[in-house]
Amino acid sequence: MARRRHAVRAAADADWGFASMHDKRRRVLTMTSLDVRASASRLADACRTLGFPRALWVVPGWTVHRRFVVSVCDLRAALPEPPQGLDLRWTELAATDADIARLRSIDPTSCEAEIARRRREGQACTLGWLGDQLVYVRWDSRGRHTFLPFLGRTLCLLDGDVYSAHACTSRALRGHGIHSTFHLRALHRARELGFVRSISIAAWWNTPALRAGEKAGRTCAGTVGFTRTPRGRRYFAAGAVRLDGTGSFHVER
Ligand SMILES: CC(C)(COP(=O)(O)OP(=O)(O)OC[C@H]1O[C@@H](n2cnc3c(N)ncnc32)[C@H](O)[C@@H]1OP(=O)(O)O)[C@@H](O)C(=O)NCCC(=O)NCCS
């Protein structure tokens, strides 16, 4: 009987891809602590972006009411050329663990589960290099559906849409135009691939993200977000953003 129970457990562990139950527990604990670290990094990033005095009033309000600005860029119109000043180059993320560890070293807000989800959704990951140093990472979603954990809703893209899902510049090098450069390169690349509209979504207080979009010619298409109430989240949308009944939303043209 005991041997049978052991065989069943071993088969279940093999399904999970773990050598033993002990390994599985250790991995779940590690992933949970990485998630907590990712959330703490997100908070630290917000405080860094906002500056401490502003964070004191923005962050408490943000826990209750979240408003995101949805901006779009028409890729059929003229696009500014990316600045050439910095010695920047980019590579596509390979599927190796070393690359993922490297990515997490500059973007600790992306936990393992998050990276796995992005890859499952087929998002393209670009690493940005200044000389030999990794300084930037961005994810672009070209698939039909992208789950947005920060909103708890799925963005449905229309034909010809691409979504700038996430970007992060190494903390030591922020404010030097790295995101503005790679963001523009990504828009040019999307246009070469035949996309006609790029969508991006940023928290209303995320000035660097909004400013880089504005410089690339993005315009505000609307807002989306939610307010926490005792009965759960109350979602809202304005402008061209439409909430669908099924936990998803899209941006009309
Ligand atoms: C958003 C982010 C990627 C911007 O990267 P970056 O390489 O520092 O961006 P840039 O240097 O190109 O700066 C873009 C603009 O924002 C401005 N800016 C930068 N930091 C700023 C700050 N803390 N407050 C106000 N403006 C700021 C820059 O001056 C620049 O505007 P300018 O060209 O008119 O001077 C970076 O702040 C980051 O990694 N944040 C954490 C993750 C995140 O929030 N990602 C975006 C959401 S997906």
Major sheet: order of its strands? 2-3-4-7-8-1-9-10
**Oligomeric state of the chains in view:** single chain
Rg (C-alpha, Å): 20 Å
Q: Which ligands accompany this protein?
A: coenzyme A
What CATH calls the topology is Aminopeptidase
Largest sheet: 8 strands, mixed
Q: CATH H-level name... which superfamily?
A: Gcn5-related N-acetyltransferase (GNAT)
User: How many distinct beta strands?
Assistant: 12
Query: In angstroms, what separates the terminal alpha carbons?
Result: 63 Å
CATH class: Alpha Beta
Structure, explained:
The chain is an alpha+beta fold. The protein has a single domain (66-251), classed as Gcn5-related N-acetyltransferase (GNAT) (Aminopeptidase, 3-Layer(aba) Sandwich), CATH 3.40.630.30. 40% of the residues lie in helices and 32% in strands. It is built from 7 helices and 12 strands. The strands form 2 sheets. An 8-stranded mixed sheet has the order 2-3-4-7-8-1-9-10, sandwiched between helices. It has a 4-stranded mixed sheet with strand order 5-6-12-11, with no helix packed on it. A hairpin with a 4-residue loop joins strand 11 (241-243) and strand 12. Helix 2 packs across helix 3. The longest helix is centred in the N-terminal third of the chain and has 30 residues, at 21-50. The chain starts with a helix and ends with a strand. The structure holds coenzyme A. Coenzyme A binds at residues 45, 49, 166-169, 174-180, 202, 206-209, 211-212, 215. Coenzyme A (COA) is lined by residues 45, 49, 166-169, 174-180, 202, 206-209, 211-212, 215.
